[in-house]
């Protein structure tokens, strides 16, 4: 394009100025775009700084799998003890008791009659005693079970259980006497029992011979 006069230069200057402004605006927009995060991912990377991506599957956490509930260690040890102390009020001991001289006694099958004779004569020294006075039936039953087991564990062979003569009970009948017979017959530790001698409690107590602790 041939310029003939200065007047012809004016449109050229205007076109050049406009092009320069457009270029400046484009450059500014490009700068802003470069500074602006392109996405949330870019914003996160900008916040945390340089990171190394994990390999596929690396560091993956497996879901927690619930295993079976653990059994208490003491449970297998306690169960035989509890079964050994389980005595019932419904057990009828009448067929197991021996009648002699108006007194009731007991000896486990296989135990000779000489054992009850010696027990009645005081052949064995009484080593432990349990007094059931003032206890309700359920309390007395539990107390008898624990007393017999603990006495055997401690090596005692001959013990006395005081059930009372029932002098203050309705009908003056010992409430616990018959139940005590039934409870003792059910205890595997008990070899025999007889009514105590007068000096040891007479009709208000029983003298019990326990099986010796093995070992």
In short:
With 215 residues, the protein is α+β, with helices and mostly antiparallel strands. Helices cover 40% and strands 13% of the residues.
Protein architecture, described:
This protein has a six-stranded mixed β-sheet, sandwiched between helices. The longest helix has 27 residues, at 9-35. Helix 5 (137-153) packs across helix 6 (175-186). The chain is built from six helices and six strands, in the order αααββαβαβαββ. Helices cover 40% and strands 13% of the residues. The chain has helices spanning 9-35, 40-48, 74-85, 113-120, 137-153, 175-186, and strands at residues 98-100, 103-107, 128-131, 158-162, 190-195, 205-210. A hairpin with a 2-residue loop joins strand 1 and strand 2. It has two domains: 6-48; 93-210, Ribosomal Protein S8, Chain: A, domain 1. Residues 75-84 have low confidence and may be disordered. The chain is of the alpha+beta class.
List the helices and strands and how they pair.
Blueprint: H1 9-35, H2 40-48, H3 74-85, E1 98-100, E2 103-107, H4 113-120, E3 128-131, H5 137-153, E4 158-162, H6 175-186, E5 190-195, E6 205-210
Parallel strand pairs: 3-4
Antiparallel strand pairs: 1-2, 2-5, 4-6, 5-6
Helix pairs in contact: 5-6
